[in-house]
Write a structure and sequence with these properties.
about 260 residues; mainly beta; Sortase, Chain: A; 2 helices; 16 strands; globular; Class F sortase; membrane
């Protein structure tokens, strides 16, 4: 049977249009497929950059237009350098701030001094200077005094505490001071109730005729107290001793911890 024997007489059977015996819609479908295949090949390839460098994936934070906070850059963990893998922390940088310094409170007025090992204990009176520039002596033999126009015990510098060694009736407040030793404890209490401990570091004897005023009363980088009394030979004509005894004690620092 021929290809046209089955067609009805009087005309062709309705169907798809043809071009040269090939259905037109089939040609359109084949052409569309080729176009799609070409597009896939063009846009799905993975060519390398011209310089041969590999690409590195990076994730940038979203821009926050209404917040002043700057977030750190997040880099994928496959980032490598010649020194090996680099790991960038996302923890914000923190800079410690030193606490504000507070100036130490000025010591109160000294009211009591003691040297426990020597059984010396005395209240204190304020002393000034005489017209010739020398330190006023305490008005009582059994009571010591401190130079009120000078340094307060506990402040940086030398605080001066003076006392008599004896009297016509017997020993005075600083009679036992000549037995002081390095390491002895000197305790000073102020009018605020604060108690400060000082440790004896030097014991010196000076002739009154060549007393080193600058060395005894001059500046000191540390808080010290200087206990002063008379010593040496007694000059009957002048009614006083020829020398002075100076016991220097430094403020004891509290132990750490």
């Amino acid at each position: 049977m021929s290809a046209h024997s089955a067609e009805p007489s009087g005309g062709r059977r309705p169907g798809l249009p043809t071009v040269g015996g090939i259905h037109l819609l089939l040609l359109i479908a084949v052409f569309s497929g080729l176009v799609a295949l070409t597009a896939v090949m063009l846009f799905t390839g993975n060519p390398q950059p011209d310089d041969g460098a590999s690409t590195v994936g990076m994730t940038l934070p979203a821009l926050q237009s209404h917040t002043p906070t700057i977030r750190p850059l997040s880099v994928s963990p496959d980032l490598t350098t010649s020194a090996g893998a680099s790991h960038l922390s996302e923890t914000p940088l923190t800079i410690p701030v030193a606490p504000p310094t507070v100036a130490p409170a000025r010591p109160g007025l000294p009211v009591l001094v003691s040297v426990p090992r020597l059984q010396i204990r005395s209240s204190l009176q304020a002393l000034g200077l005489l017209s010739d520039g020398t330190l006023q002596a305490p008005t009582e033999y059994a009571r010591a005094g401190w130079y009120a126009k000078g340094i307060r015990p506990g402040a940086v510098g030398p605080a001066i505490i003076a006392g008599h060694v004896d009297s016509v009736s017997g020993p005075a407040v600083f009679f036992a001071l000549s037995q002081a030793r390095v390491g002895d404890d000197v305790v000073v209490t102020d009018d605020r109730g604060a108690t400060r401990h000082f440790t004896v570091v030097t014991i010196a004897r000076y002739a009154k005729a060549s007393f080193p005023t600058d060395a005894v009363y001059g500046p000191s980088p540390l808080p010290v107290v200087r206990l002063i009394t008379c010593t040496g030979d007694f000059d009957v004509s002048k009614g006083s001793y020829l020398d002075n005894l100076v016991v220097t004690a430094e403020l004891r620092r509290p132990r750490a911890g």
